[in-house]
Amino acid sequence: MNKSLFQIDKMDCPSEESLIRLKLENMESILKLEFDIPNRHLLVFHLDAPEPILQSLEALKLGSQLKKTEVVENINLEEDNSQRRVLWIVLVLNFGFFLVEFTGGLFSKSISLLADSLDMLADAFVYGMSLMAVGKSRIRKKNVAKFSGYIQISLALLGLVELVRRSIFLAEAPDYKTMIILSVLALIANGVCYYLLAKGKNEEEHMKASLIFTSNDIIINAGVILAATLVLVFNSPFPDLVVGLCVFIIVLKGGLRILKLAK
Using only C-alpha atoms, what is the Rg of the chain? Predict the structure, then answer.
């Protein structure tokens, strides 16, 4: 059995991890993948030569390099049930707050709140795909990836259209109170997710990646709270529109990358 270390320069969040998993899942020689996103490393346990793996990684254009390959005796391929439970909790919280924020965004007429809800949905898809990385058929995983990609792109485009419409017709300022209340609740939810992911002090890379992704969500929640505060101060919709634009672009890019690989 071989263990190969790959350097992937453009791997900086769980979205890239999901793309790589989808890309490599058809290779029967691969036994296990271990991701170290902070250091942009991928450790692959496999049976055959590493060159086909490198070629598949290079097709993603993420700046992949083979650092070294060595022979190992055996590895532990069992899933950690406690990790799976944490990921399920994080997934449910993200999807639940997608529904809450999306509904609140519609009623409060807040673009940034709608965009934040789509970011929560994108997170739920990422965690869901990570949970399905073991024990499911390849066709099913690709179909789920395509579905998640199409959903993210469609919602992001609809959001951008609505953002343009409101910008042209100078929509009224959104309900900043609803924005603040729901964003604070979402911030608390993401704080709980961060705590659950961090308290285990797990050194496995996919758990580290989930921790990084959740910390980014906290920053976005804070951005929506800031937008609501500026809406209150200036009585203008533009802070809400600017934050919404930034988050919509993040969601759109994530959906395009997933869809590109799942074809």
Answer: 20
- Looking at the domain assignment, is residue 76 inside a domain? no
Residues 168 and 208 in one domain: yes
Structure tokens at 160: 């951008």
Closest C-alpha to 186, from 235, 221, 233, 138: 221
In terms of domains, do 15 and 107 share one?
Answer: no
* DSSP assigned state of 29: T
The total of structural domains in the chain comes to: 2
Provide the 3-class DSSP secondary structure of residue 61. Answer: coil
pLDDT of 187-210, one tens digit each? 998 888 888 777 755 545 455 555
Within 10 angstroms of residue 258's Cβ, the number of other Cβ atoms is 27
Last-in-domain residue among 71, 93, 121:
71
Phi, psi dihedral angles at 61 (to 5 degrees) = 60, 45
Give start and end residues of each alpha helix (H) in the chain.
14-24, 51-58, 81-108, 111-131, 138-168, 176-199, 205-234, 238-262
> Residue type at 22?
L
Residue 40 Rama label (left phi>0; alpha psi -120 to 50; beta): left
Tokens of 219: 């920053």
Q: Are residues 129 and 172 in the same domain?
A: yes
- HSE at residue 209, side-chain half, CA atoms within 13 A, is 25
d(CA 8, CA 223): 30
Q: What is the spatial distance between Cα 93 and Cα 10, in angstroms, rounded to a whole number?
A: 28
Q: Other CB atoms closer than 10 Å to residue 136's CB: what's the count?
A: 12
Structural domain boundaries, residue 252: 81-262
Q: What is the pTM of this model?
A: 0.62
pLDDT in tens, 76-111: 555 456 667 777 888 898 899 999 999 999 898 899
